[in-house]
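$ ./design --mode recover --in tokens.txt
reading tokens...
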């Protein structure tokens, strides 16, 4: 058992997700859009967010694995599940739970841009700016956070706590 300290409440999350949905709907109005969920962490954010995206869109899912030590130079990232839709000529919006070092998002941006999408943008619920190693442009951010390991609303620690409706700091 760990001690959890709530940092973002369910109400705050839901309010912000609704705002992000509105912003996103205005950007893509009338254009073909594919919204991509990065499994597993973004599953709740994604499912709540798409219900607030009022423009027509398709959904798809990816899962990436990262291997290697925390020494980032030896980090390898690969798909364990790729998307299934053809994104050529369509706008792509990648939905992520948290962007930390930026390595995962850099990989996804490179991979998806190579498929001739009309545009590739990023929405993340959380951004941990202090730990960024790759400079990537994030188009929609739910909340900026400082350090600390977060769980809940999709985020896990050893596969635990993903289903909590709020975001909590794990006190190890
Ligand atoms: P990055 O490649 O360092 O940006 O890492 C992104 C991934 O690391 C996220 O999609 C999460 O799966 C995981 N991650 C980073 N920080 C946290 C955290 O505080 N809690 C849970 N997972 C995290
Ligand atoms: Mg993730």
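writing sequence...
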């Amino acid at each position: 058992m760990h001690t959890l300290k709530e940092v973002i409440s369910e109400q705050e999350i839901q309010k912000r997700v609704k705002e992000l949905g509105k912003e996103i709907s205005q950007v893509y109005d009338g254009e073909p859009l594919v919204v991509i969920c990065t499994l597993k962490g973004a599953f709740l954010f994604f499912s709540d967010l798409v219900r607030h995206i009022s423009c027509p869109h398709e959904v798809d899912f990816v899962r990436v694995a990262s291997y290697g030590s925390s020494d980032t130079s030896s980090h390898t990232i690969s798909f364990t599940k790729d998307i299934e839709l053809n994104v050529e000529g369509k706008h792509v919006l990648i939905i992520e739970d948290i962007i930390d070092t930026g390595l995962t998002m850099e990989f996804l941006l490179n991979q998806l841009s190579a498929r001739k999408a009309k545009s590739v943008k990023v929405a993340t619920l959380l951004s941990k700016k202090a730990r960024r190693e790759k400079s990537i442009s994030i188009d929609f951010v739910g909340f900026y956070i400082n350090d600390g390991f977060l769980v809940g609303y999709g985020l896990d620690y050893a596969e635990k706590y993903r289903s909590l409706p709020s975001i909590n700091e794990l006190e190890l």
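exit 0
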